Amino acid sequence: MGISTVAVVGLGYIGLPTAAILAANGVPVTGVDVSSATVGAVNRGQVPFVEPDLAGYVSDAVSSGRLRAVSAPEPADAYIVAVPTPFMDDHKPDLSYIEAAARAIAPVLRGGELIVLESTSPPGTTRRMAEWVLDQRPDLSLDGSGDRPVVYFAHCPERVLPGRIMVEMVTNDRIVGGLTPEAAQRARELYQVFCQGEILLTDAVTAETAKLVENSFRDVNIAFANELSLVADKLGVDVWELIRLANHHPRVNILQPGPGVGGHCIAVDPWFIVDAAPEEARLIRTAREVNDAKPRWVLHKVVDAVADLGVPNPVIAAYGLAFKPNIDDLRESPAMEITTEIARTFPHATVLAVEPHVDELPAELAGLANVRLASTDEALAAGQVHVLLVDHTQFRALAGPLAGEPVVDTRGILR
Questions:
Q1: Which residues contact residue 110 at a Cβ distance below 8 angstroms, ignoring those fewer than 6 apart?
Q2: Which pLDDT score, from 0 to 100, does residue 334 have?
Q3: Active-site option among 211, 234, 294, 324
Q4: Are 347 and 370 a contacting pair, CB within 8 Å?
Q5: What is the pLDDT of residues 324-345, one digit of tens each?
Q6: pLDDT confidence of residue 90
Q7: DSSP 267-301
Q8: Under a CB-based contact definition with an 8 Å cutoff, are residues 184 and 176 in contact?
């Protein structure tokens, strides 16, 4: 294959598992991260976030000497870039992390390396990454023109579910798109080291767009369920019973509604398509707007519940801050947004944030004087209005304790 060492740039929710799984398959890996805390944790064999099974992989990889972390790229045969790709206030993609990674890698290249972008990206980002690298290294090329050494660029988007990353990273099919056919082939050989699923080759722009399409499809379907919950509420219908009955049709499979859509993928990726084709992506834009509006609707329900309570300084318990069950990932979490807005809407209330997967409040909530992290038992005892935002497994036992209490249930837990 010609790849004996790999550098993974960005040791977050995707980069660190990727580094660990490569190391577990015998590949020496250097992990690169700008956070000194992350570098230190990894070099101690520790994982700075919650992901089942990952801790064992990292500990074994570090103790075996096949994984170490550094703060700046070093020479390697292949680089995997797994840095954040957020969007800005106008929903335009922020590619500054990818550009910084590309410019950091460029000085240590010798020619012949493979650079794979794993970060979910707008169409054309892999080519832009190549331009950033070659702008600093005009002695290198994409195709060997002018007798310059070649650097191979490809895109291989991750397709894993938080909470199942170490399983799905191995078993899921992968899409690999190269700026050149040879780049795609080299990337496939790299991922074949650990991937048991089918590896599908295409060009870079198609690979970039495929990941966005996958998450936009899911977003549209969630938006239908969330919009249906608004309609059902207006009609006085139990939306979960409605969906249960409708799903008995052999060709209907409606998803479950919630307080919105979170996570770095589904809540972000559709905007990249909208930015790339604003006139054409009408349904995708509408789905994003429906899902982004759902937290405000939940907040109105909490306002109504507090008004019905008639207490001047209520204690409001918010159950869950993560964007999905049984993880500690708070990125783009609608539960976080709702809890923050509850605290701001009721400055004289006490807001008990219940999140069993974190040890301290995130900065957004820690800065609010009327919010504190609480246990489930404390929230049940002190809460006067209860807001169920995440269906963590342990919250499913709350139906009995909360019977007869003022509850805003966004997950159908108490049915």
A1: 75, 149
A2: 97
A3: 211
A4: yes
A5: 999 888 989 999 999 999 999 9
A6: 84
A7: TTHHHHHHHHSTTT-HHHHHHHHHHHHHHHHHHHH
A8: yes
| HSE toward the beta carbon, residue 223, CA cutoff 13 A | 20
pLDDT band at 150 (very low <50, low <70, confident <90, very high): very high
**SS3 letters across the chain:** CCCCCEEEECCCCCHHHHHHHHHHCCCCEEEECCCHHHHHHHHCCCCCCCCCCHHHHHHHHHHHCCEEEECCCCCCCEEEECCCCCECCCCCECCHHHHHHHHHHHHHCCCCCEEEECCCCCCCHHHHHHHHHHHHCCCCECCCHHHCCECEEEECCCCCCCCCHHHHHHHCCEEEEECCHHHHHHHHHHHCCCCCCCEEEEEHHHHHHHHHHHHHHHHHHHHHHHHHHHHHHHHCCCHHHHHHHHCCCCCCCCCCCCCCCCCCCCCCHHHHHHHHCCCCCHHHHHHHHHHHHHHHHHHHHHHHHHHHHCCCCCEEEEECCCCCCCCCCCCCCHHHHHHHHHHHHCCCCEEEEECCCCCCCCHHHHCCCCEEECCHHHHHHHCCEEEECCCCHHHHHCCCCCCCCCEEECCCCCC
Cα–Cα dist 129/131, whole Å: 5
Mean pLDDT of all residues in 146-160? 95
Average pLDDT over residues 61-83: 98
Report the distance separating Cα 145 and Cα 303, nearest Å.
65
Is 265 among the residues known to form the active site? yes
- CA 277 vs. chain centroid, Å, equals 23
Please tell me whether residue 144 adopts helix, strand or coil conformation: coil
Using one digit for the tens of pLDDT, what is the confidence trace for 188-212? 999 999 999 999 999 999 999 999 9
Question: Rounded distance, CA 393 to CA 322, Å?
Answer: 13
Residue 378 to residues 232, 302, 315, 344, 367: CA-CA distances in angstroms? 33, 20, 11, 22, 21
Which of the following is catalytic: 92, 156, 195, 265? 265
Which of residues 264 and 358 earns the better pLDDT score? 358
